[in-house]
Structures are given as structure tokens and as C-alpha cells.
Amino acid sequence: MRALDLDFVRQTNSLRRLGIILLIAAVATAAYLAQVYVKRSAELEVWQTKWHRLQKAQRKDATEPASNPRQKLEWEQLQSELKTANRVIARLSLPWDALFREVEIAVGEQVTLLSVEPDTEKSELRITAEAKNLTAMLEYIKRLRAIALFKDAHLTSHQIQQQDPQKPVRFVVNAQWGEVL
After folding, report:
1. What stretch of H or E contains 41?
2. How far is the C-alpha of 103 from the C-alpha of 136, rounded, in Å?
3. How far is CA 49 from CA 78, 82, 105, 127, 158, in A?
């Protein structure tokens, strides 16, 4: 009988190269994410400084700005920054992953999402999609209405694509999210 030659450690050059490429890609990604983190941390610190300054100014004179035109202008700028900061906080505090996951789960096989446009000021999503037929479109809207995150989901417009031989239906749905988020 002949002896078996089993070598569990041997690696081919192509596997070694692939491992090195993946390692370089991981290091580059980590460096990029670290850079983004540092940038976002600096932005957060600037916003927090402005926020504390606004709170201090509001405590100082909550009813009306001073009669000095320079202070009045500064007061208006602070109020504008406060509104902007509140909009940013509102956008960042929404659980986007859960919202988009629910929209994607409702899609099914006969509907294709073309775009999802959130409007945080109106608490609304504008979903543009294409369905194979009218029945598939109506089923998708029914599934959207069944999602607990949405207070309302309604068809805004639809159009049968006549130039396509399969005649799919392109449609727009507005879905308003509630306090569940």
C-alpha cells in the first residue's frame, strides 16, 4: 500500500494573494471609517457648542432679544441655528434601518422599488415603484398599510407603461409614519 500525502497547511499563491488583497481592503476601509468618524465627531462638537450657547441665550432672555440691533441680529441667527439643529436631530434620531427594512419586506416578487424619498418635516415617505400589474400594485399598497410604522399609505399616482411590451404599472405611494418611530 502506498502512503497518503496529506498536507492540510499548504496554501496556493492565489489564496495568499487574495488574503493580502482582502487585508489591504479591510485596512483601507478601517482608515476611511476612522477619518469619517473623526470628521463627524468634530461636527458634533461644533453643534453641541452651538446648542449650549443657544440654551444659555434662551435662559438669559427667553421672551425677547435685546433692543440693540447687533444683539437682535445675533438672536435671530441663534434661532435659525436652533431650527437647523432641531431638523438635523430629528433626521438623525429616526430609525432609518427599520423604516427601510419594512418598506423592502413589503415589496414582494412582482414589485420593484425605484426610489424612496423621505421628508422628515412632513414625516412622510414618497415611494416610487413599478409593479407587473395593477393587482400587484394594490397588494403592495395593502401590505404598506399593514405596517405598524405607518399611519397612512395611499396611492398618489400611477401610469401603465405602454411602451413596454409587458405593460408594467409605475406608481407613487405616499406613506406617513406615526409616533411609533
Report:
1. helix 13-60
2. 15
3. 12, 12, 40, 37, 47
Tell whether 86 and 107 lie within a shared domain: no
Distance between CA atoms of residues 166 and 122, nearest Å: 36
Residue labelled with grid coordinates 403592495? 140
Residue 141: which residues within 8 A CB-CB, separation 6 or more?
A: 153, 154, 155, 173
Yes or no: say if 85 and 47 are a contact pair by the CB < 8 Å rule.
Answer: yes
**In a shared domain, residues 102 and 148:** yes
Assess contact for 171 and 158: CB atoms under 8 A. yes
Same domain, 109 and 55: no
pTM over 0.70: no
- Per the structure, the complete domain to which residue 61 belongs is given by 13-93
The pLDDT profile of the chain, 181 residues, written as one tens digit per residue, is: 788 776 666 656 777 788 888 899 989 989 998 898 888 888 888 888 888 887 777 776 555 555 677 777 887 888 888 888 877 777 777 777 778 888 888 888 889 899 888 887 788 889 999 999 999 999 999 998 888 888 888 899 999 988 888 889 999 999 887 764 4
Find the helix or strand (DSSP H, E) in which 83 lies.
Answer: helix 69-93
